[in-house]
Amino acid sequence: MDPTNKPRGPSPHYSLYQREIFKKGGETGELPSFSVHPDELVESTKKKLNDRGYFYANSNAGLGWTDRANREAFYRWRIIPRMLVDTNTRDLTTVLFGHRIPAPILFAPIGINKLYSPKGELVPAKIAGELGLPYCLSTAASQSIEDVAAANDEGASVKNESNSVHSYNGPNGGNAKSPRFFQLYMGHDDEITVNLLERAWKSGFDACMLTVDTWQLGWRPTDINIANYIFYYPPGTVGNELGASDSVFMKKHDEDLKADSGKWIDSNVWHGKAHTWEKMPWLIEKWKRISGGRPFLIKGIQSAEDALKALEVGCEGIVVTNHAGRQVDGAVGSLEMLPEIVEAVGDKMTIIFDSGIRTGSDVFKAIALGAHAIMIGRLYVWGMSHEGEAGCRHVIKSLLADLDITMTVAGYQSLTKDVFRNPKALKYNPHGVYPRGEHARL
User: What's the structural domain count of the chain?
Assistant: First the structure.
């Protein structure tokens, strides 16, 4: 791991982050303050947060079988390593909606980030900017659209010294600035919806991602046990910041908020009244008009039929996800459905994969099965729960290093050329059960 003999390639040598940690430990005795092993990380997060914060991040629908299905699906696909391949430089870059990004990893939209750090969404937005990775902002955020955009810009302007070795310089083939996605929970007041889209576009969010699997929260017993719905708790501000900063919503509901602190979340986010495919052409047309034609995606696709329907109504992309197992208990794992969806629409639209990603090998597998990029959520929440910006940065840089090293030792030089949609990179094993807890570390 001699950094002086590593030629410059398309991607940063993310693997050197492992060496940096080893050197600090060997020379000064400085060790990471928490483990990034996913099983250990989720356990230590429980010690860092109160019950509301911990269970909001980790609650699943019902018995948690869909969350387990997500991990089991990854367990059944096995990487086939190749030997004597020149992987002295790796190419993890990809072009996403006209933006060349250094790795196909997006920060998923997660609400109420103030449960995990006082700065809330400003933390992951800044880290995403530092690393050049796309950030997705939730409508259930605990910071305003404008403030999150400013934090993302701040991160992009920071010269992170720990990333200075062979840093990414934006090779040709796309706009080197990472895109920002606005994740929309659409209520039934079209005026408020349009205003949210206009605010997002003005703040530099140049792709719209509509979530369609969560008009209402799934049945999550570990949240039920402690009545874990922070929007209703006094003083009624955390989680309502996007509404409180929206001029149209406040003009209509300022008085209502005095009697009902949950008015924003109940009427515009998890309102319990589902939309249908018939509404999609209207919404897509509004976004296209506001943004000058920028991409529109639907998040929550779990079947080839729905993927084809999304293509038919005019979506440029979809997010294959089951909301990390938080909505329908006993549902299919997202990775189980990815091959069918890729076969149906993979040549016609951009496919982003979400749900169950924990490691660099997981990223590799999703790309090999046809995803153009992946999203991570719980990982960065767990990181910021430990040390805010430093914790979030550590987890994401560890994931990037894990992916980079996996490419190196498995013998694959380029994600897009050698791994993407490559059936020879994986072998399916239908046998065995994904181990949990202590057994996973044996």
Answer: 1
Could you tell me the two tokens for 319?
């997010």
Residue 436 placed within a domain: no
356 is in an annotated binding site: yes
To the question of whether residue 187 is assigned a binding role by annotation, the answer is: no
Is 166 contained in some domain? yes
Catalytic sites, residue numbers: 323
Considering the domain boundaries, does residue 439 fall inside one?
A: no
The string of pLDDT tens digits covering residues 112-130 is 999 999 999 999 999 999 9
pLDDT tens sequence across 222-257: 999 999 998 888 776 788 899 999 999 999 998 888
CATH assignment at residue 254: 3.20.20.70
Domain of residue 55, residue span: 3-429
* 323 known ligand binder: yes
441 lies in some domain: no
185 is in an annotated binding site: yes
User: Nearest-CA neighbor of 144 among 242, 235, 48?
Assistant: 242
Residues 300, 194: Cα–Cα separation, whole Å: 21
Place of tokens 């001029």: 247
- Measured distance CA(178)–CA(158) in Å, rounded: 14
Structure tokens at 19: 């060496």
In which residue are the tokens 């090779």 written?
171
